[in-house]
Design goal:
Layout lengths: L3 E5 L3 H12 L3 E5 L8 H4 L14 H20 L13 E3 L5 H9 L7 E4 H7 L9 E5 L7 H14 L3 E3 L4 E7 L2 E6 L2 E5 L1 E4 L5 H6 L8 E10 L9 E4 L2 E5 L5 E4 L13 H14 L8 E11 L6 E4 L6 E5 L5 H17 L14
Parallel strand pairs: 1-2, 1-10, 2-6, 3-12, 10-17
Antiparallel strand pairs: 3-5, 4-5, 7-8, 8-9, 11-14, 11-15, 12-13, 13-14, 16-17
Helix pairs in contact: 1-6, 1-9, 3-9
The protein binds flavin-adenine dinucleotide.
């Protein structure tokens, strides 16, 4: 009989996990507390690389490294459902205090392309730059996607693949039964052969009652988008942890704050001023642009950014795929593939040890 799988959480991690399992012929149901794809995965910037990737453990970079090519393939698969605008604009990093670390990181893998450029080269790539030091780091191959459009295209694609997508279905707890797992929801109980928890920032709280203490905490991030100014911002630019992302229609995003505030998603005028100023500090002409939107999302924070992907130590058949923190968009395809490999008993695409729950 076809094996049944329930995925808890309809963000990018849950939806791509559901896709992998459906592609493998499983009967998949996604249970989403509110609406699909409206939390962190919607709020993020969509950069397909960790920021300053050399600051992260290899276990993060390995999964992140799987992302860009997977998104290029996904763009073709989802073309009939919408264009999520995979754009390889490159990224310029204006702060250069970690050049040695960056070079060491790049030397470990031929896919990691990084060059040092001088001020003239930097201004040729991105006119109107301010705040340049003698040199800048140029990462030509870095891309970004328009994540709300990715989610919008994924949902109908999954439906067409036979995945059941149930909104307004909060999951409360889990327990073992012979050969499967019972999922207790606000709308009754469901049983499946396997269950994967992809509940983002809420995963730690949700799993508390199941007997594990997963250190996944919400970390708020605020962002702004400026009105379109076609041609003004050509590449992603980053300085002091703040980054500009140019969308195809001429809009520019600036992100982001890092705030530990429980589940509060309120935006603040301090953050707005500070983000706007960071944007102007990189490209002064942004001062003339109106802010169109200001929003916040809750990242699934973990102590060092390494997600939890693996089986629950006490409930067989219950798996977790959560805690991608600041890198959940770029890590989603690789995390989904690893989670599906473990659920299906396939050879795992990455060594699973760094992500185990215990
Ligand atoms: C401002 C900001 C900028 C970012 N920029 C980037 C970036 O440029 N690149 C990048 O790679 N990453 C970025 N991120 C991080 C990335 O967005 C997240 O790591 C990623 O979206 C996490 O995906 P997720 O599916 O785990 O979580 P979410 O998208 O939050 O989805 C979790 C889902 O689970 C549901 N849920 C929770 N509890 C339950 C329950 N009990 N029952 C049923 N459903 C439940 C929620 O409603 C939600 O829909 C950014 C994040 C923020 C906030």
């Amino acid at each position: 009989m076809e094996q049944t799988v329930i995925v808890v959480g309809g963000g990018v991690i849950g939806l791509l996990t559901a896709r992998e399992l459906a592609l493998a012929g499983r009967d998949v149901t996604v249970l989403e507390r509110n609406r699909l794809g409206r939390e962190s995965s919607w709020a993020g910037g969509g950069i397909l690389s960790p920021l300053y990737p050399w600051r992260y453990p290899e276990s993060v970079n390995v999964i992140a490294g799987y992302g860009p090519a997977a998104y290029r393939r996904l763009a073709e698969e989802l073309a009939e459902y919408g264009d999520f605008q995979y754009q390889q604009t490159g990224m310029m990093i204006l702060d250069t205090g970690e050049i040695d670390e960056a070079r060491t990181w790049a030397a470990q893998d031929s896919q990691r392309i990084l060059n040092l450029i001088d001020q003239e080269q930097a201004r040729a790539l991105q006119p109107g730059l301010q705040g340049l030091e003698q040199r800048a780091i140029w990462m030509n191959s870095l891309a970004h996607v328009r994540n709300p459009r990715l989610l919008k295209a994924l949902v109908p694609c999954l439906r067409d693949r036979g995945v059941r997508l149930l909104e307004n279905t909060p999951v409360k707890n889990f327990r073992s039964v012979a050969g499967g797992v019972v999922v207790e929801t606000a709308r009754g109980e469901r049983v499946a052969d396997k269950v994967v928890v992809c509940a983002g920032a809420w995963s730690g709280d949700l799993l508390k009652r199941s007997g594990i203490n997963l250190p996944v905490q919400p970390v708020k991030g605020q962002m702004l988008v400026f009105e379109p100014a076609p041609g003004l911002v050509k590449t992603m630019v980053m300085k002091n942890g703040r980054y500009l992302i140019p969308r195809r229609d001429g809009r520019t995003l600036i992100g982001s704050t890092l705030e530990q505030e429980d589940y509060d998603k309120t935006t603040t005028s301090e953050a707005m001023k500070s983000l706007r100023q960071s944007a102007i500090d990189m490209i002064p002409a942004i001062a003339d642009l109106k802010i169109e939107h200001h929003w916040a999302g809750l990242r699934p924070g973990t102590p060092d950014g390494v997600p939890y992907i693996g089986e629950h130590p006490e409930i067989p058949g219950l798996y977790v795929n959560a805690g991608q923190f600041r890198n959940g968009l770029v890590m989603a395809p690789g995390s989904a593939r690893l989670a599906a490999d473990l659920v299906l008993g396939r050879d795992p695409v990455f060594a699973p040890e760094p992500y185990q729950l215990s």
